[in-house]
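Dear colleagues,

As part of the handover before I leave the project, I'm documenting each prediction I ran so the next person doesn't have to rerun anything. This entry is a single chain, and its sequence is reproduced below.
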Amino acid sequence: MHYGKKHDLPFGIMDVAGLLRLNIRRRAPGQVYVDCPICGDRRGKMNLNTEKDLWRCNYCGEGGGMLSLYAKVYGVSNSDAYREICDALAVNGFSPDYTVPEKTTPAEAEQSDAASVQEVHQTLSMLLSMLTLIPAHREHLRSVRGLSDDEITRFGFKSTPPPFLCRSLTNRLVKAGCRVQGVPGFYVDDNGCWTVKFHQRTSGIIIPIFGVDGLIHGAQIRLDHPLKDKDDPPEKTGVKYLTLSSTGKRMGTTSGSPIHFVGDPCSRVVYVTEGCLKADVAHALMHRTFVATLGVNNTAKLDELFAFLHRNGTEEIIEAEDMDKYSNEMVGKGASKIYALAARHGMRCRRLTWNPNYKGIDDWQLALRRKEQKMKEDPGMTFKEQYLNGLCGLEMLETCTEKWHTMEADSISLRDYLGLTEQEYDAYLQTAPGVSFQELLDSQRKTQRFRVYQLDLEHGDTRTFAFGGIDALQKAGFQQPPAAEYTLVYDGELICPVRQDDRDILERIFERYNQAFPPDYRGRSIAPSDVLELYDESKRRYFYCDMAGFPQVKFSPALAKKA
């Protein structure tokens, strides 16, 4: 039993954890990290404070006292939770035959008090100056993240050093006058020497965490190989990012979950997302000010930052959490906290929604940039291809002909440049009797009617299969799309070649209504979980937008809402 608490209960939170059979991932002085029984996350995100007998899950955001933990797991009241815990632990006269097994608690390592912000900045800045960025990491930042070499240098990315250099690097810092005690990541090893916590298993890219004051408050590591537990299901991607911390190590220090800031501290509009690297990339692509938390529900420190930003002239906060905020209740919950904090400090807040085919705002912005570059480099369709696909009228012939005249002589014939057959070219020149040029082309194209149905997410509701494929739909318990949860957002038509099949037509609709929309289109970018209808006078066919392809489904349009 645990006594001496600030409450009168005859047990502690570790007794409750034992009854709930919580899986302990790691221990630290005064706290234990376990898998969360509330949201089911199995990455040790729930913190049990053994000194205050409190708990909080850093993923789902739930927290409270130890009675509420038991009550939430079993769906009982706090008073019932108290009686059941006492009964199980044989206290206050309950269950006299029950004996509590002897528990042994490992000795807790002594921890260091946190160094000052200036000392943390000085030490981490000098540490990063001693490190390099290996070619593989630079290539990832350039080709996958879309950053330039200048931006990579400006953001200060470095590669983690090999473990055998950790002690010598720390010695160099101490000799240079830097304080390592109380700086996250530094601790005393088994030989009594100061070192820094870099391991081969956690190698990756170091991302400096800058505060709004321009100082480095900590660091995060993008792991080369995500960490997975042996009991994790196959679909789990594993932990991709770790914060540099030495909690639990001798004379170690917690990272404190700092907030990352990149941009203008006096900006009128500030975007908030999750993940330091994501914020840096989005800032580079959009030239906007970004704030990044280290977890979707790790928003406590936003309160102080928002107060500062409001005093500095910020008027609007834009919530830019990943698009799974519409399908993941925990992400949606964290996004809602941003609204409440902004309102508390007198700032407007609005939700940013983008093409749901891209999870993060950085992915979306990078896709837009690359699409623009591709359009500049792509020679484009011939006149005939554009006409058969309804992308131009006959008047485009004159423009194409003028452009052909500006090309190098003998590079390509006009007929080939326009994409015409010999018969079509003769009709265009009016050198052959018979069918007119327009009639020849019009006989090769058709009009396809279609409708777009999308999940109704206007009020911040979440659907577990939103923007997921057919597997996510079936996992949510549906064999067919639930039409009552959908809204008809568009009824349009597409001109296409006569021989174009349904699959190609659906691909064209997906591509056309993915970025730029016509004025009368009221929906989002077409994405997985949308339903597309192809119809004519004789039949209707319904297709589910999957992660790859468009499987045909059954759908009841009469149940769908109207936009």
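The radius of gyration is 30 Å. Residues 93-106 have pLDDT under 50 and may be disordered.

All the best with the project,
I.
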